[in-house]
């Protein structure tokens, strides 16, 4: 598992090939398709997240695409679109956006296409 510490700010695309915990700030997309991303209470992510599973305790502004589940905990604040088979919004969480479970396969195809295009494929 990798961790982006509280004092770290990443600007640009972040790719992880194992479970990822974000405690700091990310400005840009996070690509972790086959693994889990946890956004800690101290974290602030501005950008899309693509992962197998996304657990949010902190702040996220962007599209969340998860093959399995997006779990929005009580301390979380999300602004944006959530596309996942399952969405859990715990009491006290802030969610300003829309959930579109019916568009999961299309959202994953678009995300993969964009990644392949960036990689020259």
List the helices and strands and how they pair.
Layout: E1 2-4, E2 9-11, E3 14-15, E4 20-22, E5 25-27, E6 30-39, E7 44-46, E8 49-56, E9 59-61, E10 64-72, E11 77-89, E12 94-99, H1 104-118
Number of strands: 12
Overall body shape: globular
Derived from helix and strand composition plus strand pairing, the structural class reads: mainly beta
Radius of gyration: 13 Å
* Domain module tally: 1
Helix content bin: 10-25%
Beta-strand percent range: over 45%
Order of helices and strands: EEEEEEEEEEEEH
User: Average pLDDT, to the nearest integer?
Assistant: 92
So how many helices? 1
The separation of the N and C termini measures 28 Å
Low-confidence stretches: none
**How would a crystallographer describe the biggest sheet?**
12 strands, parallel
Q: What can you see in these coordinates?
A:
By secondary structure, the protein is mostly beta strands. It has one domain. The chain is 12% helix and 55% strand. It contains 1 helix and 12 strands. Strands 1, 2, 3, 4, 5, 6, 7, 8, 9, 10, 11 and 12 form a 12-stranded parallel beta sheet that branches. The longest helix has 15 residues. The chain is globular, with a radius of gyration of 13 Å. 31% of the residues are buried.
